[in-house]
C-alpha cells in the first residue's frame, strides 16, 4: 500500500470545550502509519451501509478546497487544515458535538489514486511501557470508527458519476446530515436496486437450468457478489459468468453473460453489490411472536418446500437438535 500523504488533526467541539489542534507537517510514512490506514480501511470496507455518489453541482467549502489541492494551489497540509477549520465552523453553526482525530491520507495504487478521510475515536486504556511499567493513555478505538470517506481521484477528474464513497459508524446518526452536507456529497447510485435487478436476472436464468444446477448457480452467484463486497470491489457480470460457468460446466452458449446479452441487454454489466440485499437472497427469514424460521436459499425446493396456494412450508429434513426436542415432548 504505497501511501504518499498522511496527516492527522484533532477537533473537539462540545458544550464544554472547543478546541482545534492542527498538525503543521505531514506524518512519516512508516509501518505504524500503514498499519493504521489498513485498519481503518478494513473497517470501512466491512461496513454494510455505504453510500456512493459524487459532489453536488453547487460548490461548497469541501469541494472547492479539494479542487484547489488537486490543482496545486494548496499543498496537502494546508488543504487538510483548511478543511478542519471549515468543519469546526460547520459544527458550531449546527450546534453539533464531536470529538476525535481526523485522518487524511492518499495512496497510489496500480490504476487508482485514492483520497481517504476518517474520523478516529478514542477510548481510555492502559498499556505497558518499554520498562514494563503500567501507564494510562488514550487509545484509538478501531471498533468505533466514525465517518469514513474515499474519493477516487482519477474518477473525479474524469467527471464520473460515482467517485465518492461515504459511510458512518455506530453513534453517528445525529451527525450524518451535517457531515454529508459539509462534504458536498450527493447519492448517484442505488446499490439496492442494482443488486435486486441482477439477482432477478440470475433467478430467471437459473430457472431454465436443471433444478440442482440452477440452485447451485444461484448460490455461487450470491457468494461471488458477497466476496466482492467484502473486498470493496464491484461485480463485473462478465467475470462472474466466466468463473461460475466454468465451475458448473456451462458452455459459452449456455453462459449467464450470453443470457444477459440476449434477454436483458439494457441491464448494467457492472454494479456495486448491496450487502443487505444479498443477505435476503442468501437466507429466507421471518418470525412472529410464537415462531422464528430461517433457512438457506439452497434448501428451498429440496429440504424445504413452499405451498403458495395454502401458504405453508413443508420441512422434509428437520435439524437433529429440533427433532430430539420434539420427540422428548
UniProtKB/TrEMBL annotation:
<dbReference type="GO" id="GO:0003727">
    <property type="term" value="F:single-stranded RNA binding"/>
</dbReference>
<dbReference type="GO" id="GO:0003690">
    <property type="term" value="F:double-stranded DNA binding"/>
</dbReference>
<dbReference type="Pfam" id="PF04245">
    <property type="entry name" value="NA37"/>
</dbReference>
<dbReference type="GO" id="GO:0043590">
    <property type="term" value="C:bacterial nucleoid"/>
</dbReference>
<comment type="similarity">
    <text>Belongs to the YejK family.</text>
</comment>
<keyword id="KW-0963">Cytoplasm</keyword>
<protein>
    <submittedName>
        <fullName>Nucleoid-associated protein</fullName>
    </submittedName>
</protein>
<dbReference type="InterPro" id="IPR007358">
    <property type="entry name" value="Nucleoid_associated_NdpA"/>
</dbReference>
